[in-house]
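Reviewer 2 asked us to include a model.

Predict the structure of this chain.
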Amino acid sequence: MAATTASPTVQPDALAAAQARLAHDPTFQFGFAPPPPPPPVPPWLKAFGEWFKTLAHLFGQAAPYLQWVFWGLLIVGVIVIAALIVREFLAYRRPAKAKQAPATLAEADWRPSASRAKALLADADRLAAEGRYDEAAHILLFRSIDDIEEKRPRLVAPAFTGRDIAILSELPAAAAQALGVIVRQVERSLFGGRPLNAADFADCRRAYEAFAFPDLWRMAGSRR
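Predicted model (structure tokens):
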């Protein structure tokens, strides 16, 4: 027969002492304080909750009608898309209309107003009096190009040079001749490396003045 092992006898005093040591051990926690109460809900959050609840209620009441709104918007969208497709199809099938050529301006219509031309000549003369002949010629050219763009918008492309503008077929002969004189002098200054002198500016001024005030030049020629 196998020998039986007797259970050890636990002394009540030893058990009580062990329990007392465990109860006073600071590394163990036997008591738990109740959790702190949650913070109060802010009034604005309560108001938002009430508003959201009201909005949800309204949507719930309108739910039976929202599906009709959805289908109505869907039908309108389909109609608009179909109309755009039909329009593009008809535009593709329709023969292109000949582009109407812009109205041809008479020579007098290309000229700047007398007050504007006089103001430009005054500015150029002021620069020339200071010996700044290059700038004086430049201002005659740039303001003349501004006048062309004002008379005929989109005629002058951004990539055009002064020479390209001077040979535009839309310009009358007098305007092209005056602009050509100014362009040649400005190009000589910018790209030829030769500063302009008083005589060069005088050529530019006469060319501009002959175009802007042709009647005065005709009268001056008849008196000679």
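The chain has two domains: 45-94, 107-223. The chain has a mean pLDDT of 79. We have added this to the supplementary material.
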